[in-house]
Fold this protein.
Amino acid sequence: MSASQAKNRNNHSLFGPFRLNLLPRLHIEDVTVESQSNVLQFFGNNGSGKSTILELIRQELNSKGKNYSYLNQDYRSSWLWWKTAHQNLELSYHNINDNESYIESDLYKRPRSWLEPILSEKPKSVFFENQPELATVQLSGGQLQRLIVFRELLHKPDYLLLDEAFSALDSDITSDIIEMIKHEQSLRHFVIISIAHSEQVQELLGGDIFQFEVDPKTKKLKLIKQSN
Amino acid sequence: MKVSIKPIVIIEIIIGLCVLVGWEFLNSMGLINTAFIPAPSSIFAEFLNPELYRIFFLDASYTVSRMIVGLLIAYLLVLMILYVSIRYEVARSLSDRFRSIIKFLPPPVLIPLSILAVGINNTTVVAVVAVTGFFLILDYAFSIYRKEFSNYNQLFDAWKATNNLKYKDFFLPISHYLSYRFISTLIIWSLSITIFAEIITGMSDGFGPRLIQLQQLYQSSTLFALIIGILIIALFCERVLVHTLSRFRFDSIRAFAFGVVSILIIASIVFQGFISYGLVSDQNQGIVISTYPGTLNLPLFVYAEKFNTIGATIQTTGSGIQSIDNLLAGRVAASGYADIPNALSAINQNQSLKILSQAEELPDRPLLFFVSYEDVSKNQYSNLSGSKVGYYPNNQIIETGLDLTLLLGGASTGGNQYSSGNDPQILTQSFVSGQLDALLTIEPYATQIEQQTGQRRINPNETLITGLQFNTLPLAALLIDSRQFTEEELDAFVQGMYDALEYIETSTNNGIANEDLSQIMIQYNLDPDSYIPYFSYDQTLDPKNIDQILNLISLYDQEIGSQLEGLNTESLYFVE
């Protein structure tokens, strides 16, 4: 399967032709996914292997040293809950820009009405014994996911991988966050590769949608539909 | 349904009060053995006793400082291992494998190993706590690594995180903030091991020996009060550590807790460093002689204070066997007078140990004194039939001789129970608390018993045990490790000991020390009122002494079933 190359990003030979069935645990039909869009969405029932494909893409990006961000719905694998919101953003930005604060970034300088109150709020002093980690940052799930997306965009990724990143959020917040991502994408032209069950997400993100399923007879994963 | 807290608390208080009132009532009716469970009122009365607080804080300072130093060492070791583990996968895999196996090792089994490695002193306890704490903290850290830290692998990849970032900004904070789950286990294990180790190694200070002492003296009210105090200390340590490590923000409470922990740690290190011998390198101390505070060792103490010809340092332990343990562990160069079977057993293990001097009883110069609650007199022991009799030193020959003496004195000894131990202080406490009916012991313990119980020694002027001719058998020996002395040092040591003996002779009148000698005795925890035996010496290799030692070696060989070869005593014998 070979995956897409984004518009305007000819310098990225993203995956090149490679065979996923090299992986012993997975049987995948030789399918080729080609797209000229900068948004790719994988769609399918549970167990159809789309998360595995995303993980393979992540590993490929990783091994090639590409600049990407990966988001899922679990804050315990993406948010540094032991640090404040400000420290989270600072650490992420420091990691790519030595000794420069995220406040200097273009992204931060754009007006964001929701960001300032969160950053200016002092975190509570709590015992973890009595309260879950999330309470320590005093954020709702929606605020937190918006901050995580914002933090990852500060990282200036060339690829943004979204693994069910919005499935725990209500539709208004989902729409807000996707709007933020799309707006940023229109300015910086990164590629979005997403997995979502929600039709709302599919519609808001747009781009090319690839539907997968596992053949009940051969147990192999195959591409059954591609829509632009 | 919302449940109000208030009624529950009131019910809890009422139930608690009912239990206390019922307990007090049962005690007052005599239905509970007060020696085992005292009345609550008497326990609360203990809390009004200022002496309890003095003892408690002294003991707490020893035990808690040993625990904290041990835990600090463990913590630093784990920090280093984790840094290496995060950096190198091989190290991580090895540490994880090591941890997964070693965590099934019960920590008390390490106590004998620590004694072999460092001898018996504060370091033994600290080492055991450090190793136990190391296993526990390492286990916790790896569980955090697996369950929490590894979730962030995808983020690390995306951020291309350095090992330093992973360690400093991810792993350490997660481990600290989630440590509340584990600190109570760590504290209770460390405190348990500290107290275990204190008891087993016969430390003279700390909660361990104090608990045993209170038990032996049947001071059950104080014992309960001390247990409540230990509970509070454990809770305090747990709270302070939780506040220090797992509070989210650096607020006032955390700042306070951080301050308390820092002070505790610094104070512990200073305390351990300056007061304990263990943390001070032996090499810097020159020759160290390990011994226990018995009047038998007075020549050594006088030598150290007045004629220290080789710049030796005296290190005191609880008993002769512990001194020998230190000598066998190579921590000291000599061990003061310890009973002969233990001394010979040590020589059997290490042929470079030699008997420099031996102590023996003369018929009119007793070294062992007999005290009894029963009305007995010399040669009339019939009231001691079926009694519990203690003896020190812990030596089968003495038990046999004592049994024979009682039998010859008219006692039917068939039902007698004999008990002994390596710590004369514990035997003394057993007698004072009434567990023993009679006790054969050395000075200054005999004097202590006279002062505490009002009983008088039965043989103030002559040897008790006539059945075995103790004037032909040495009782105790001063051992040296010949590898640690040069010939010149040995000569100087011997000359200094001669001078010490002369000094004792001129400073003693009718077995009582003058003021100068009393000062030295007080300094080495000897009772200045205790009886000072007659110290003498032979400068030549006396055939009688050779007979004595050969006789003893043959007895030892029969009893232990091994051969002592190459036993080469020096030509010096102190005779008491």
User: Anything to note?
Assistant: Chain A touches chain B at residues 58, 62, 65, 68-70, 72, 74, 76-78, 80, 82-83, 91-92, 95, 123-129, 133, 136, 152, 155, 157 (CB under 8 Å).
